[in-house]
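anyone seen this seq b4? input:
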Amino acid sequence: MNKEKTLLHVEREGAAMIEYKLAEAESRFAELIWDNEPLASGELVKMAAAQLEWKSTTSYTVLRRLCDRGLFQNVDSVVTSCVSREDFYKHKSHQFVEESFGGSLPKFLAAFMGKKKLSEEQIAEIQKMIEDFE
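predicted toks r here
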């Protein structure tokens, strides 16, 4: 199993930057929650047993850890997200560009594209994105 960890910084309203370090297994568990929320914690444990082959103690431990980090909440045995999947991956992508390319999107795109040529459709899509951000 890949033990890669993801370090994620998410700004919360009125709070300092929060760090999330997610192992691959924690990321798969988070995906399970995002795909099915809101859901009863007991149902989550059953799903983790079926899909991840986890024991209930493992599921509850990981859930508690992710709740302690502010990614999810378990209120009255109902699990919901505090950080959306979209925000999670947005921040994860942003951090990758920051750490790997000094925050330079052009350097990232150059590395990503290599010697590939963009299609006219891809060029138009990128130009529209740039115009939308201006």
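The radius of gyration is 18 Å. The chain has two domains: 5-85, 104-134. kinda curious what u guys think
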